[in-house]
Design brief:
The longest helix is centred in the first third of the chain and has 26 residues. This protein is an all-alpha fold. It has nine helices and no strands.
Length: 191
């Protein structure tokens, strides 16, 4: 069972995905989370606190779901894991991905949000770099940043242009990710 703050933030992510930053209100979050009116504003007094909470929730999800999979993946499995992430981000996790992009665009104009968003992304990249260091990558920080940027760009392209079907999406993502990993992994372990 989730706590009320988690329910609120998960509802807020759905609102962001469906209605964008303009639609993110405490009232809309209450409705999306199916909780009593006023609950979101009780836990998150300001809109900026709600927005920062959304970033924190996305990082929590990444740390609980995605990062452990990367840390546990050996070199031969890493390509499968990253391809799976890309497919999931454009399909079953689509709402979280759309919310993340909404927050990212808002951070361009909001310095406080930018600080929170960059800190969350840095945490994820640091852990990704740690996993790549364990695989023998000589510059794991650069590799983690590049892999994240490529995956992010591919997912955005898939959301806008397609492909949308999971098998076709995986077939499109895999060769690009394989090339990026091959540039960093020793020998041919990414295959």
């Amino acid at each position: 069972m989730t706590d009320r703050r988690t329910e609120i933030l998960d509802g807020a992510l759905h609102v962001l995905a469906e209605h964008g930053m303009r639609g993110l209100t405490h009232r809309a979050v209450d409705a999306a989370a199916r909780i009593p009116p006023g609950s979101a504003s009780y836990y998150f007094r300001s809109r900026s606190a709600l927005v920062a909470g959304c970033v924190t929730r996305l990082v929590e999800i990444d740390l609980a779901v995605e990062i452990p999979a990367v840390l546990d993946a050996g070199p031969a499995k890493l390509l499968d894991v990253l391809t799976g992430f890309g497919v999931a981000m454009a399909t079953v996790q689509r709402h979280r991905t759309l919310a993340r992009y909404e927050l990212s665009l808002a951070a361009v104009r909001d310095p406080e949000l930018r600080v929170v968003l960059v800190a969350g992304g840095d945490t994820i990249r640091r852990l990704g770099a740690e996993a790549l260091r364990g695989l023998g990558v000589s510059d794991p920080d650069a590799a983690a940043a590049e892999v994240a940027a490529v995956l992010d760009g591919l997912v955005l392209t898939a959301l806008v242009r397609g492909p949308q079907e999971p098998a076709a999406l995986a077939a499109w993502l895999r060769p690009v990710l394989e090339r990026v990993l091959a540039a960093y992994l020793p020998s041919r372990t990414g295959r």
